[in-house]
Amino acid sequence: MSRRRQKRNQLLWADQPGLFDLPSESDAGSANLQALGETAFELPERMRFLSFGSGSSGNCSYIGTPECGLLIDAGVNNKYVTEQLAANGIDIHTIQGILLTHDHSDHVRFAYAILRYNRHMRLYATPKAFNGLLRRHSMSRRIADYHTPIYKEFPFTVGPMTVTAFETSHDGSDNCGFCIEGPGAVFVVATDTGTITARTDYYVRKAQYLMIESDYDADMLRTGPYPQHLKARIASTIGHLDNSDTGRYVASVAAAGLLRRVFLCHLSDKNNTPQTAMGTVCHELESAGIAVCRDAEPTVNETRIHVMALPREKCSQLILLHGEP
Fold first, then answer.
1. Which residue of 25, 91, 125, 284 is 20 to 30 Å from 156, comparing CA positions?
2. Distance of alpha carbon 49 from alpha carbon 184, whole angstroms
């Protein structure tokens, strides 16, 4: 290297601080750097959803954040629920209670067992639904110790979640859907309803994530093994929704552009199949010009509506509710 180039390099680096040099008072005074807070690198809390089983044989699911959660119904074996929570990294002590949609056996069968082994939990049910539970089922009256009365259209908070019960149309003692507003997402449950009530429609149209029943295929019910009186009950306005009705209704809601994911629940084991429910509902959506995603797990930036049928008798994957894309 020539002497001229060496001198030029020396002048270039002369004003640069050394690796171990401490800043002068003048340098420190002009600095605008601020220390990062403890929460600077924390990820935002997100809602999570998990179904332990959804169908005529039993219904139970989980909704919550890492710090606080709720069970929706209690119709699945308490030991299985506990095992699956642990397998998915969910601390059962963060679950504050059970939201009860109504008093039919496939939704309440294991309520007392879950509460008895988890005494920190509450049973959130309307007074009529709770009285129906006591009247219809041979269950310990000690379950009353866990009951917290709730009322339709009166929101209540559980941790970071705001829950509102609303009217559905079924032949239970008192039937509720739930609108659950939490960090980053609005999740709505509309199951066991023979028709879409005005209040159900109001809350479903707020949902980004919707769990809605798609109980039966009309042709399978008509030609199936059930006696005529049971077929009439299922198809009535206080029975259940069939696949076509669910598909057409979801299509009418999806047109507004807010809905991101649809979870089809309460599929009949005699009068429906997951493939039939998915095919019918997706056909109704696509016929209305709505793009559908059938991937097992959509990407965060997916713009199409994702539709999946919840497993009848096994646990789903843990689903992160991302909220707005």
1. 91
2. 13
Q: Is domain 47-321 in CATH 3.60.15.10, yes or no?
A: yes
Q: What is the pLDDT of residues 245-288, one digit of tens each?
A: 999 999 999 999 999 999 999 999 999 999 999 999 999 999 99
- CA-based nearest residue to 150, from 179, 170, 171, 172: 179
Per DSSP, the three-state class of 176 is strand
In angstroms, the CA 78 to CA 200 distance is 29
Instruction: Look up the pTM and report it.
Output: 0.86
Query: Could you give the percent of the chain with pLDDT greater than 70?
Result: 86
Pairing state of beta strands 58-64 and 69-72? antiparallel
Sign, Cα dihedral of 205, 206, 207, 213:
negative
Could you give the CA distance from residue 49 to residue 70 in angstroms, rounded to a whole number? 10
Q: What is the dihedral of CA 229, 233, 237, 241, to 10 degrees?
A: -130
